[in-house]
Amino acid sequence: MTASPTLDPAFLQALKTLILDAADKAEPVGGLADDEILFGPESRLQLDSLDALQISMAIQKRYGVRMPDSKETRRALASLANLAQHLTDRLS
Question: Rg for the chain (alpha carbons), in Å?
Answer without folding.
Answer: 12
